[in-house]
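Researcher: Next entry in the queue.
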Amino acid sequence: MPTIDPGLLTETAEQRELRAVARDFFAAHGGDEALWKRMAGELGVQGLAIPEKHGGAGYSFAELAVVLEEAGRAVCAGGLLPAVVLAAHTLLLAGDERYLPGIADGSRRATVAFDGDVRARGGTLSGTAEFVLDGAVADLVLARAGDRLYACEPDAASRLSLRVLDESRPQARIEFHDTPATPIGSADIVPRVLDIGRAALAAEQVGGIAHVLEATVAYVGQRRQFGRPIGSFQAVKHRLAALLVEYEAARSAAAYAVACVASESSELPVAAAAAATVCTGAYRLAVAEYVQLHGGTGFTWEHPAHRYVRRARADEVLFGTPQDHAARLAVALGLVSGNER
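Model: Structure for this entry, 341 residues:
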């Protein structure tokens, strides 16, 4: 049975106001190179879900998800996922508060390095971390080495920006060479951190799908063929109706995953896997329709559709493939054992 407050699934008046402000902000500054500083100075986004005792605003993950959704609508990264979601929640779950004030006020950009071959020895890290979000610009890296997590300032490490499909979400390879590091806790929390990341990504994807649906409906309403709008054609109506159904399913799945994070529910592994599966599939369909229903113009570099295609394709493998999520969901629901995966 659900263990979350049903009220968490309903958007409050305060959250609607936050959404309107965030939408206007990202529409105006989504591509701004100084976006991280603007978010801190104008919105205070970085500290939104960080407790007040650690320098944050003390709101819940639900409010942060509203901002993430609007960032996804504008295909804006801005360091939110690696720093404000993954790194901040790693520190909160580890019970290490030293670095949270810097994240909250925007003076510190943080990220996590959970993938790769990193080894700890005598207070230092050596080895390579792969596919580190914002790895080239982060000034704090929370790395996994064996069964422990460590915090380090990667100035003494080598960083190589990677060529990625979605350039709005940069990644890097970090090579540690006896880099000084501080233990912050057990790596046992990594699965929950990743589930929180999946819930956050689902919120972003819902924002992206919403933009695609609205933009496509607007286009087919004004594009005319044979003397009438193409949106009046039955085949187009059916395709958009199917997309609306997918959007509503994604919105519901993401909302439940977000509510599980906000309420610290034990159902998060199921909710996160379901949201990742549903939202990834819906976004894949959405961007395909975005391009095709815009006709020739949808295939051009001048049209923004390619930005959403890149984001959707990159999101499919960011925290595991759809097959990985389906397998995790089957295990979480008890349909198969972990040994059968």
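Model: The beta strands are 110-113, 116-121, 124-133, 140-145, 148-152, 158-161, 171-180, 182-186, 224-225, 228-229.
Researcher: Noted, moving on.
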